[in-house]
Amino acid sequence: MRIIFNRSTVIAAVAPLMCASSTKNTLPAIEGILMRAEGEVVEMTTFDLEKGVRVHCEAQVLEEGYVILNAQKFNAIIRAMGGDEVEVIVDKNLGTTILSGSSSYQMQAMRGEDFPGLPLLESERSFMLPEGILRALIGQTSFAVASNDQRAALNGAFFQVTEGQLLLVGCDSFRLARCSAALDIENKCTDDRALDFSFIVPGKTLAELTRFLDGDVEGEDLPQVRCYLTRKHIIFRFPTMTLFSRIIDSEYLDYNRVISGTDSNHATVDRAALLGALERATLVTEEKVVGQVRSWVKLSFGGPKVEVSSISATGKIYDEVDAAYTGDNIEIGFNNRYLIDTLRACTADRVTLSLTSPLMRMIIRPAEGEETLTEQLFMVVPVRMRD
After folding, report:
1. Is the pTM of this model over 0.90?
2. Of 218, 250, 282, which residue constitutes the final position of a domain?
């Protein structure tokens, strides 16, 4: 195989591949980039058995080939070299020479046939999603996705795609985020089926997907990502790149039952003001003291102000936030970091906090009259406060 790349082009092509290149695996092939050079394009793929990325890079293919190059080494080499072009030569014994300017580097390639089997990257079930809306919904829900829960379903975000709506839900047992957007989703299913799909995307995949999504939500001809859904995988196809991932094969929790209930206590506050008070409280709640666990933050409801307070082994803090409150006097404690993350995910200027009792979950949603791009509802579970 012999290929000549434009150096800046190949650097840009390799960058997204690195997120799916494993560095802690006993199979050397999984640590590599699978290169297939044909015609005037080099197809490059990485796959860590959970998620993968495929890109197509224009190049001068002087001799076609199909090999695996170590991803970390190849990425470091092309970035360190100083020429305008990068030439990759692989001999019949898989000895590889990489040339650029006056520099050369030698490494050993592996046979392309040794790469793990890849899933089919197309399906009869397909639809188009606006990148900006998808990115916004992921940002509003991914903070609540668990990272290592014994219940596999909670380690991902629940997606529900219907003809007129895209819904995402994240939950880690302590927080829940349910956000949706009314959309005219373009149905690309080739078998004439209606859009009604539900699946769970791993949290790690969401983090990588966000990096590739355009954030524009206003204007005409906004970028769209085409999604293919198979029995075991979700594929996100961009113009020059494809991200694919296993979906979590598990039943998601009944989130509507979790958030249901009759709340008779409601406080409407300025989101930024409450967030500022909670961030100041982190000076106490997140102070590390040997032998002490992080303390909770207490919210006291009952008048025209929400009182924010916390006590730790080394200090205490008190703050107030103006509020329009109706209901009984309630004192309720929360993990402060969970509250901060939730308020940061909400995009409304004013929010309504709805409570039932000091021992039951609190619902946070945009206040009535607030205009937001998406419909948002968040839940936070309280902690038991000890004197």
Report:
1. yes
2. 250
